[in-house]
Hints:
Elements: H1 2-9, E1 14-19, H2 26-29, E2 34-39, H3 44-47, H4 51-73, E3 80-85, H5 91-102, E4 105-110, H6 114-122, H7 127-140, E5 142-148, H8 151-161, E6 164-169, H9 183-194, E7 217-218, H10 230-236, E8 241-242, E9 248-253, H11 262-287, E10 302-307, H12 313-323, E11 330-335, H13 342-348, E12 351-354, H14 366-373, E13 378-381, E14 396-399, H15 402-413, H16 420-434, H17 459-466, H18 468-471, H19 475-478
Parallel strand pairs: 1-2, 3-4, 4-5, 5-6, 9-10, 9-12, 10-11, 12-13, 13-14
Antiparallel strand pairs: 7-8
Helix pairs in contact: 4-5, 6-7, 9-13, 11-15
Amino acid sequence: MYHAESFAKLGFDTHLIGYKGSKPILSLTSLPHIRLSYLSESPPLVMRMPFVLAAPIKILYQIVTILYALVFDIPRPPEFIMVQNPPSIPTLALVWLVGGMMGSKVMIDWHNLGYSILALKLGQRHLLVNIAKRFEIIFGRSAYAHLFVTNAMRNHLEQEWGLIGHKAVLHDRPPSHFHKCPPLEVHELFIRLGRSMSPSLTDFLPSASLPYRTQLTEIHHGLPPYSASPASALSSLSTPSLRKDRPALLVSSTSWTPDEDFGILLEALKLYESRAREVNLIKCENSQSEDEPKEGRVLPRIWMVITGKGPLKDRYMAEVELLQQNWQYVRCTSLWLEAEDYPLLLGSADLGVSLHSSSSALDLPMKIVDMFGCGLPVCALDFACLPELVRDGINGLVFRNASQLAEHLETLLTSFPSSPALDSLRTTLQRALQVPLNVGPHVHDHEHEEGADWEWGSWSENWDRIVKPLVMRDPERSS
């Protein structure tokens, strides 16, 4: 969606082709040059078939619907066709075919390798995996431009596949509306979410009294008369502040697939629960006060919110429900948010957790990109190219197993909400978000990559620096 928005802002008539799902972002649909073309899903009967039978039927269905969209939904041959990979089959071949027939310049946005995802299901040596890999090499090797989400992916595909065309690394960045939320936005978000809060959270979270007090925020002074409506009452009050007795809000976004081991997080939460009981009991004994206020605890309560949906969700959440019946310091709940509320949740959170391990070890998790865009430090599962995004001890902490994650949680949350370790990571992120990229006004090196030093930059800054020169080579467009 972000590529489409960037093209449209340059004045290109932009057709976005894809399946229905989450609502497109408002900044995209409000642009006059954007046209949405939705592909129809495979019939429900196909979805219930075994994979070996369903896969070829789905591919044939996709061939028909994608070809129709490319040839008939777009009124004239496009100058550029940009395709995100994966999915690879049949999309890469169809784009290659239509691009050749219409004289369009094909741009491939390499987010991962499609065959590596298939290998998670079937195994590396499966015949279909080998066929998928050959397909990806044949139809992905040559294009007008190749964009990569990591330097590691660019180096691998250049060396192993001999790619032909312009090549550039474009690290993912969230759009400009992703930001750290001030207490007022946190307050408004949890007024909305509070009405649908899970019953299991009632006794765990601090009590709420909407609209003056949510589970995380409160307004202290100047309460209006009882007769005032909630909207007018809220507008007449002083600015909300974060509650001192609030739990630490942790967020993890997952697709609930095998390349994200939720079991690591579950085990880490068990270890944290045990450690919090031990540490806080010692503090209570030392202070000779069993009625110590919540804000005096050495380790806080954790509210772990999991967003997203996928095939393993029901299995793991059922396990969570059983475990947390006896937990005092941890609650784990799942949420499915509207597109506009997702960045607000990230901007309201205290710490993010990423379990992404990468099927190819060459891509980076978009969830961390989103978190950084909201000024949210992360604890991230280590894999080969993670250092291109997460700098251990600078903008986050890296873990390899559940015990390391539990140790990081203790380090970052000790004395919450005034935690020096967590504040240090937040400060680094805030500085990076406030400083624009050091880029000259004329960038014509299409082989350019982002600098080795950790810098952030917005999506539009990165796109204008790396992709815009590739699509504005026509003098008439550049003028």
